Predict the 3D structure of the following.
Amino acid sequence: MAWEEELKRAICEGEEEQAERIVSAALDENINPWEILERGAIPGIIEAGRLWQEGEYFLPDVILATEAYNQVSVALEPLLSEGERRGRGSVVIGSVEGDAHEIGKNIVVAMLRGSGYQVTDLGIDVEKEAFVESVRESNPDVLGLGAYMTTTMRRMPEVIQSLIEAGLRERVKVIVGGAAVTEDYAKKIGADGYGKDAAQAVSLVERLLGGG
């Protein structure tokens, strides 16, 4: 089995140590870190997401896959030089304050990176001030807000309002997504777009940035 398939399987099945061994061996063979990420790691987390959506995976399975992917991503990140980034645009993304769900967000991050975007993942339970500060410091093209519960959705308009108050709203496109969010809600709170899943989120970013 080729290293790509081995890494994809290891991440999809949540075999963190095995994934790390495969990555180490690939690096020893001078395989480009971007190739390792795009040809093995990203397909693995996307496959886990697909199995979860189809009901073949349960939450513990996807959590293990996410942890394996995160380990590989963290290990490779320092090796991904700016010169190797394809520079299609930059995205800051995170789950809003009070929301600890990250599986869907991680799949969006993986697909965006695989599509050539530079992504800063702020993680989960991100306060509005942290979103604003990240926009101010890194000046991204797109800000992605995720909410997976109706109780945390209300944080989204708070982030947008904080951007307005900071004079940063016109600088960045704001997109929203997550199980609790709808297109109507996105329009209501003044977001620039809504993605119902990871694939739609990538297409949305491409469209907003003039690439699709």
About this structure: The CA atoms of residues 148 and 180 lie 5 Å apart.
